[in-house]
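2024-03-11 09:14:02 INFO receiving multi-entity request
2024-03-11 09:14:02 INFO entity count = two
2024-03-11 09:14:03 INFO echoing inputs for audit
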Amino acid sequence: MDWSALAVSLQLATLTCLLLLPVGLWLGRALAVARFRGRALCEALVALPLVMPPTVLGFYLMLSFGIDAPFGALWQRFTGSGLNFTFTGILLASLVVNLPFAVQPIQRAFENVPANLREAAWCSGMSPWRTLLRIELPLVWPGLVSAMALTFAHTLGEFGVILMVGGSIEGETRTLAISIYDRVQAFDERGASTMSAMLLLISLVTIGVVYGMARRGRGLRV
Amino acid sequence: MFKLLRGVLLTMLCLPTFAHAGVPTVAAASDLQFALSELAERFQAEQGLEVRLNFGSSGNFRRQIAQGAPFELYLSADEAYVEALHQEGRTEDAGVRYAIGRLVWLQRTGRGDLPTEDDPMAGLEEALAALRDGRGRLRIALANPEHAPYGVAAQQALEHAGLWDEMQPLKILGENVSQAAQFALSADARGGLVAYSLALAGPLQERGEHLLIPDSWHAPLYQRMALIRGASETARAFYAYLQDDEAREILARYGFALPDASSAEEP
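2024-03-11 09:21:47 INFO inference complete, emitting structure
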């Protein structure tokens, strides 16, 4: 059992969730509620990681993270270190890959909030922020929860992108999924199946707990 | 309508099988990517026979063949895999050693001074000095020594140079030697230890420069091939062609050392 890989995976999944929560909320609500030009294009861009093969996506991320590429050079200038083969690098990659998993469920939830409910709240003098907190969030709560559960579980299992930008460094970029693959390659089926069982268990527990919360949350009154 | 659809679907499903009927599939290690493609083209030009090439990790192929995957010829970068399949009765015989792999230091063109023969690890030492002085971290790429033959050789060479422990903070691992080469040429790496046959190939020749690592620094990378039981005539002809002088010359041009004919027998 590769404990350091498990730790890296859990950190990566947790941070990805925390960072994508505000992004998902903002983008999901904007795509559901706001009417602006280029919305269809935005939706398509968000969904792009779903159709791109992860290794291909990872390859292009690796190129753009390089210290000779504009983005990588800019990053280097401000932080003093490159992005490829670092935990920060796989975290950024993971944010890109998980964008659709975080945004889409939240967008669907916001689409189901009747527009006249929002308008009624505004008419009764509630500020847009207060409306969001008091009226909308309680209604979209299940969507939020499932977005986070999907993102967490998907990050745990993410392989191709991490393989391309990570470089399999122990304790930094070697995630559980990469470690399992290495065990299989090394003909260590036992090690691989122990870790796979662990991965399966964590994913099941995560999704189970989260959906259980969501079920109770549906009766939530703020 | 449904019938028409079903007809179209069935036709589509059958097309690839018709197109490749009687074309044997060859499983080959990824360090052969460029050499074997040229060999297959020549073989087709000379004998009018076609083979389909599948490149990947030798270990993966070993596993797939053990489970009855329909390959007819197996070229491994690690002869132990061929021996294992032979023991399991999957191959026709013990096979033949067809090449000896060589290890090179590979770096991006313009990445800095190319190490010289007196000190093949100069690039690595430079990266280590930079790390000590806090001048950034340029990585060193190799294939994963846990399962890639070239990774094992790279680790042995680094141990021979007495740098293995010290280079750990710089180490990045490719899943196979091709990926290690890709990592070695990335902007964040000082270089890497990869297969000579990849460094010599067209696409990499423009982007990188290389230096041979002395072959006394690691155990020899004996590569062995064998026919899988029940191989077709075409596969047999290709197997024979690969042992011809012409084919051996091409392998040599791609940076493989050639085993002398006597070592081609039982290991």
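2024-03-11 09:21:48 INFO post-check: The CA atoms of residues 118 and 214 of chain B lie 10 Å apart.
2024-03-11 09:21:48 INFO post-check: The interface with chain A takes residues 57, 59-60, 63, 136-137, 139, 141, 144, 146-148, 171-175, 179, 183, 186-188 of chain B (CB under 8 Å).
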